[in-house]
Structures are given as structure tokens and as C-alpha cells.
Amino acid sequence: MELSKNYNPADIENKWYQHWLQKEYFKSQPDKREPFTVVIPPPNVTGVLHMGHTLNETVQDILIRKARMSGHNACWVPGSDHASIATEAKVVGMLKEKGIDKNNLTREEFLKYAFEWKEKYGDIIYSQLKKLGCSVDWDRTTFTMDDHYYKAVIKVFVDLYNKGLVYRGARMINWDPVAKTALSDEEVEYREVTGKLYYIKYMIVDSGQLTVGSENNSDNRQPTTDNFIIIATQRPETIMGDTAVCANPGDERYNHLKGKSVVVPLINKAVPIIFDEYVDKDFGTGILKITPAHDINDYNIGLKHNLAVVDTLNDDGTLSNAAQIYVGQDRFVARKKIVEELKGKGFLAKEEEYQTRLGFSQRTNSVAEPKISTQWFVKMKELGLPALQAVIDGDINIHPGEKFLATYKYWLENVKDWCISRQLWWGQQIPAWYDEEGRFVVAENEEKAKKIFNNQYSTNNVQLKQDEDVLDTWFSSWLWPMEVFKGISKPDNDDINYYYPTSVLVTGQDIIFFWVARMIMAGMEYKKEKPFSDVYFTGMVRDKQGRKMSKQLGNSPDLLELIDKYGADAVRFGIMISSPAGNDLLFDEASLEQGRNFNNKLWNALKLIKLWQGRQSENHTTEAILIAQMNFNPELGMMPMVLPGSLTEENFATEWFEGRLSKVQIEVDILYKQFKLSEALKTIYSLIWDDFCSWYLEWVKPGFEQPIDEHIYNKTVYFFEQLMQLLHPFMPFITEEVYHLLREQTEDLTIKQFEKSEKPNNKILQQGNILKEVITAIRDVRNKNQIKPKEKIKLHIQTRHESNYEDLEYILSKQVNAASISYTNDSIDNSLAIIVNKDKFYIETGKAINTIVQKDQLEKDLEHLKGFLISVEKKLSNERFVKNAKDEVIDLERKKKADAETKIKIIEESLSTL
RNA sequence: GGGAGCAUAGCUCAGUUGGUUUAGAGCAUCUGCCUUACAAGCAGAGGGUCCGCGGUUCGAACCCGUGUGCUCCCACCA
After folding, report:
1. Using the CA of A295, which nucleotide's C1' is the nearest one?
2. Distance A199 CA to B12 C1' (A)
3. Phi, psi angle pair for A317, to nearest 5°
4. Which residues contact A547 (CB under 8 A, 6 or more apart)?
5. Nearest nucleotide over every DNA/RNA strand to the A415 CA, judged by C1'
């Protein structure tokens, strides 16, 4: 079969994925093996996979494939998240484009559209996972709004309510005026913005002369120095909600105002001046307006001083009737107009630029509005304790640990109650049932609710209405590791008992509070056990300038396009090669190119080995002589110095590579255990490219159209198979393809089990290193002296017999293009000399040599060695070093000294002969 | 304001409890090669005050202190 010039991934990747699916390799059922379980962090059904997902899914696939090949029953559960607020926003937008207003739809009609949306985007996500090669068990695909999942969420809500851990109440929450729903604290992102601080004059009145907005002359009353105070605010549009102004009781400037009131400008409402330690005398004007409905601090002060709450905003962020003015106008429009009016009427003392932090809704990017609202909450303190303990005790290991442990602890120790109700339709509807008076009960369905209600309130045949709101999406995803195995809806089933706790959770560090911490809470509450043993946090994927990927910047590549361009293996390689755990990854297409080149390298190595197929020779000796003669250059008129007659010599290459392979197999295993996947990939990459292709294959490569020793051929094929297996978890497609093209196979690589690797022979490895060093040094000399690659040399070795080159001559002569190798005790005239490992190599070219180049090089080496020697001698002449250091260390230094001295001597000898 | 992390070659990063040569890799750069698997390649090379300063030690990229510069998380100063 003719192999193409370059590797073409597209067809091959598709073919193997289909084959794996058909063979059902990714399916998992409980059995006697040890499970290795991963649940996918369910992507939102709002869109397509981005580079962050790609990194996460690749990491998971590597871990799960490695486990599958290591005797585990590997189970990777795929799925998607209904993402209540994000999806609802998208669906509303999509409907708007079609000219449909959500308000004109019934709940049922809307949900129908939402489910259609889910089908469409869920499929896109799943097809991307397939393209990427994710070895998930498709029969276990779970969606957070599946029937069983929905029921599980309701069950948990009811249960927590009955335990007193879920409650309903009026609290200050964060409100999203675009999505028109409550948010949890975690869904608000604070960002630095440049705002303005407005200094507004409030007229002072004695409490006796309160004139509540009735005078027609009030607007014309101009403030003067002694009849007003100045208050700084960022939000002039909320002054209509002021119910007091507040100063610090220790602030002498405002002492005289005790018992007085001020008039809120524009609406002429008198409010009392109160005093509270909370106010910072030194900030702004030292006096603060209190607007309990629109600021958490003001709310708290309001509670303390029994102030009224005047909510001047509607749910959509426009001013409400309570504001009296600019009613119905957007808060930001109203702000501008109010500032203008204040200015016009002389109430604005000054305005200045101000750096501040504003809370934005994570989903709609609108400025979140603090608002008093009746919502449902989860009590977090109690649930948090076991979750904290599990991590502190090391029952759950976080990677990289040092970075996130502190964050995790701090959050759990200071956690506040979680607002879980959302004023949306897309999600699990809250199972609370109300009568007309607003009395309510919580139950799994209407029937049960009625029973409980009738009991509780001694009523009969009451009409109950279910809560309109749905639950926060994270209130469903925190059950994910349990409910994908129906651990909540059908507790104690075979799956949950076998697969739970799962092995490792791979996710972004940005959802440590949203999801990771809460999953641990839910797991501890409902299974009395951690949901996973390890957490592997990946960093954020950024572009190569370090910017976040975003649609606006256009720096977020399309996954499918990348796969089309480079192949899935190359994408996986590119994203893994430079992604140390927990660090941000600067995504650069250049690394995908590197991945593609690596694919091609494998492909070409395959082509080379295929050339040898059918040309194996059983007789080592004869062939070896032939090969040696091929290298013999008749022009130089020399005999081939040593015939590679012994088996040992030929076997050096295979034995050396066997050692390298074992060594790397052991190293890689350790790296997996430490979750250092990118290190593992680098190690395998270098083993394949450098050790296997650049060294080993060159060493065993027969001459043009020459036969190859059968033993070497078989070993080579075996090595290549082992390499493909080692690489398979990272690059599953090409490795499977190469594995099958190498020779007929009865099983697929995907399920081939790793064998235990032998301890490498260190002596041979060391010999290999010396050989490589010698080859490199001679090549360097050839290069520097402009000896053409095709030009043959004669090599004379002056050895101190610490290293034995006889077994290596065959390889050595081939690699440096030497016509002969001989041994000498004297220096060789008209030759280039180099020193490697205290042995001297003379390179004879047959032409006159340029002594200057050589002299320069030798002098440079000499200088370096002398410097080195001085540093070693300094150490050894330090009495305290000799007294205190360990014997091994001193011996080593002595050896270093002796070695350096020997080398210096050899170089000086060489220099003197030049 | 509180906390965490980072700082090593042009870039991205390794560097395992302080001592195997005056620090390693990949990418990029430079030089020479269309050598019969591969120019998406081969052979070779150059490149670093290990952020500054101080300390501990016989010995520091590594430990301690301090300064500087980045990054992230948390927090209710109008």
C-alpha cells in the first residue's frame, strides 16, 4: 500500500472514531475492575465549545484513555447544562429576531422554543466532542433538565426545605435589570470603572418646619453657606429614595445638626439627619445619604435606625412611581437628566472623576442593582463545614493545591446564604405552592402540596398556585456527579454504588465557588462522601498577547476550523504542550503547527519502516559486512577497519533504545500521577522525535535498498508500537492508524493494556549518551571546518580506555561519515582534534586543515575549563567546606578537579602541536 | 483594605527535601545541507547578573527577610 507524502488527518480521524463507537469501547458497565470515573463539566447549551472547553476535554480524555489502557473500568459521562439564565437570554433574543415577544407567550410555549434551542446546540456541542476524539460513554449522556434530573433537583429542594436549610425571605439581593431576575452573589462580577462623584446640596430645616414638597417657592430657594450640607454620591438618580442622611456622631462639623432634617432636592422631601459610627469622617464630605432600597450598607443602617425603604426603581431598571420624577425612564438616562436639573437649580456643588468598582451581571453584563426582594435561599454555613473538612483533611486533593486551597477555605469560612430563585421560565420550577393569601407549602407536586396545605392550615379544597420562579442553574449542577448515575432520583442503584465517588474532576478555576465547592457540599450532604478524589484546575486560555478570548476581540478561534486545518491530534497536542496545570495558557496557533509537524514526523517514520518490510535478512554477519563495505570509500584507499561481525554491536542500538523506552515509560507514569500532563507529553515527544527518529532509526537504518536484519526490524516495529501506545492518550487517532499500518493487529490500540515496564540498563544508556556526544562533537567539527556532508573522514581515537568504542564503531562511522576508525597512542598530523569525555578524536580529511579555527576552539574550551577548575579548587581549599560537606560531595568535587586537570592537559598538548 | 500566586534564554516554561561539571527543554533566531522517511525536514551553533538588595550556610535559582513589578481572588467607604 502506497502511503501519502504527508499525513492527512481528516478521513483517518473520522474512520477511527466511528470504529471505536461501533466496537463500544467507550461504554462502561459496573464490573469487577476498579472504576475510573470522570463526569464532564457540562457545557452550557447556549453555544459552541471554545478553547477553554477544548483544553478541559482534552485533559479529561487523556486521563480517561490512560486509565482505560491501565486496567481500569473507565467511564466518562458526557452531558450539558440547561444554563437557565444564559439560555433564556439567548432564546428571548432569538425570539425577538423572529418578532416574537416572550411576554406574549405562555410558559409552555416558551419552553417549547427553549427545548428546540437545546436540541440544536446540544447536538453541536456533542459533535464537537466527537471530532476532538473524546472517549465518552454516549449512552450515559445527561442533561440537567432530563426528567430524572428535574425530579432529583425538586427532591433535593424539598428535602433541604424540610431540614430547614432552604428558606424564603426578603433580603437585599443582586438584581439583573436586563434579565429581570435575582442573582446569586457569585453571579456578580466587580470591575473597576471610572465613574463620577456628585456633590449635592441638601437644604437644612428644623424638624419643626418640615415642608414636605408642597411649597411652590421651594425650587427657587437657593442654598447659602449656612443653610445646606453637601453630600457626595455616585448615584444621584437614587436621591428620591433617600430616607435619611447620616454623619459620624464624633464629627464636630455636624454636631449642630442633631435633631434637624434636610430636604432632598428636586422632590422636596424632608428626611432626618441621623448619626452612625459607620460613616467615615474623612471620606467625601463626611456625610452620607441613606437610600435603604438601593445599597446594602444603607439597608443595614436603615434597619438599625428604623428607616423606611423607598424603592425608586422598577424591575427593568427604570424609575418607579415612588421616584415621583422621571418615572419610567432608564436609571442611566435619569441620572443625566437629574444631574442637569440639579445643576440648573444650583444644587450641584461639584462633580469629580472617581475610580470605583461596579457589579455587573455575569450573564447579561448589565450593572447589577442591589434590591430588597423576597427570594429563596440556601443556608450555606452548615452545608459548608463537611465540605471544608474534606479538603483540609486531604480527602480531596486539589491540583495545583497550594494555589487554591487558601481561596477555597476562605470562601467556605465566610460563605453567605445562596439566593437560588430566578425570575425565569427555563429551569426547574420551584415546588412551592401558594394560596391567595400568600400562605405556602413546599412539596414535590401539587397533590402532595394540597395535602400538606390542608393539614397545616386546616383548609379544604384550596386553590393552590405554584411558584412562578425557577432555580439557579447551579442548584441543579451541584448534583451532577450523583445524578448522572441517578444517585438522587434512584438512590442506592448499581451505578451510583460503583462509580461514586468519581476519580477526578477537571475544570476551570473560575468556577471553584459556583460549582466545585457546592458539589462537594451536595456530595457530603447526600452521599456522606466526597464527589471526587482529585480536582485538576486548568488555567484560562488566553491569546498569545495574554488577552482573554472574546468575541469582540475576534481572538477566539473556531474549534472545528482548527481541527479542519490541523487535525484533532494536532489541536490536542498544541493545547497540551504548553499548559502547565493551573497556569493560564497563551494560545498560539504555532503550537498546533508543531502538533501537525509531529503527526507528519510519525507518518514519515512509518513510511521508512514500511520500506524495510519484506526486506528482512536473517543473516546478520553477511549483511553487516555488506553494509560496512557500502560505507567504504575506495578513493581513500583504506580497508574498512572493523567488520561489524559481532551481534553485540548490532544490538547496541536496540538495547539502548529499549532502555530509553523503559526509562521514559516509568517517568511518564510518575508524571501522570502528579497530573503533569504537559510534561508527560513533552517527554514522549522528545523520546519519539529525538531518541527514536533522530538517533535510533538512523543507527539501524540499512543502506539504500539494502536488507535489514530481521531481529532489528522486529524490534523496531515493536518499539514503534510501544511508542504509539504511550502517545495514544494524547493523540489517539494517528497512533491508532500507525499501529494498524505497522502490522496486522488483532486488537485496537485504544484498549491495548499497558505492560509493566522493565528497569532500564543504565550502563547502556550511559554508553548511548557518550556515543551521541562523540557524534555531535565530530559533526560540529565537520561543520565548523566546512567539511561537506558527503566528504568522508578517517577517525583516529586516542582513548584512555575508560570508554569502549569497539561496540559502537559501526554506528559511529555511519553517523559521522567515517571511512575508517582506528586507535592510536600518538597525535595524528594534519588532523582536527577534539576531546570528548577525556578521549581524543583525530579527524583526518585528506586535505590541509585550517589550524586557526581549531586553535580558537581549543583555546575557548581551555578558558572555560580553567575557570571551572578555579571554582572547584576554591571550594576544595576552603577548610570549612572540607570539614562540613558530605563525603560524597567532596569526592565528587575532587573528581571534578581531576577531570578538569586531565582535560586541560590534553588540550594544552593539542595546542602545542598546532 | 485583606489574601494568594508568580518573576529563570527573544517567547512559553522545567528545575524533585540547598551540593553530578560556572542552569535545562520546546518554540523562535543564526550557519550549513533538496543526504535515497520527512524542507511540515536534516546537521550544528549562538543566546541567561536565575527581578534588585540583604541574610542564613562550607555551599543558594532553591531557605529567610526586604524592596520592585506583574497576575488572580475576596471585601459594604458614599
Report:
1. B76
2. 50
3. 85, 5
4. A553, A555
5. B74
How far apart are alpha carbons A49 and A40 in whole angstroms? 13
pTM over 0.80: yes
Contact between residue A541 and residue A584 where contact means Cβ atoms under 8 Å apart:
yes
- Strand pairing category for A369-378 and A166-176: antiparallel
Residue A633: predicted pLDDT: 40
| A188 neighbors A360 (Cβ within 8 angstroms) | yes
A16 in Cβ contact with A54 (< 8 Å): no
Alpha helices in A102-177 (DSSP H): 107-132, 147-162
Q: Which residue is nearest to nucleotide B39 (CA to C1')?
A: A597
Query: Nearest 5 degrees, angle CA A101-CA A102-CA A103?
Result: 90
Residue tagged 465540605 (cell numbers)? A387
Name the pLDDT band for A105 (thresholds 50, 70, 90).
very high
The SS3 assignment for A398 reads strand
**What single-letter DSSP state applies at residue A510?**
G
If DSSP codes are grouped into helix, strand and coil, which group holds residue A418?
strand
So what's the pLDDT on residue A645?
A: 37
Please tell me the distance from the alpha carbon of residue A801 to that of residue A812, in angstroms, as a whole number: 17
Rounded distance in angstroms from the CA atom of residue A777 to the C1' atom of nucleotide B49: 30
Torsion angle defined by CA atoms of residues A545, A548, A550 and A555, in that order, rounded to the nearest 10 degrees? 20
Nearest nt to the A585 alpha carbon by C1': B12
Burial A470-504 (b: 16+ CB within 10 A, else e): bbbbbbbbbbbbbbbbbbbbeeeeebbebbbbbbb
Enumerate the β-bridge partners of residue A373: A171
Q: Say which residue the cell 450593572 belongs to.
A: A367
Give the phi and the psi of residue A454 in degrees, each rounded to 5. Answer: -60, -40
What percent of chain A is modeled with pLDDT above 70? 93
Interface pTM, i.e. ipTM: 0.95
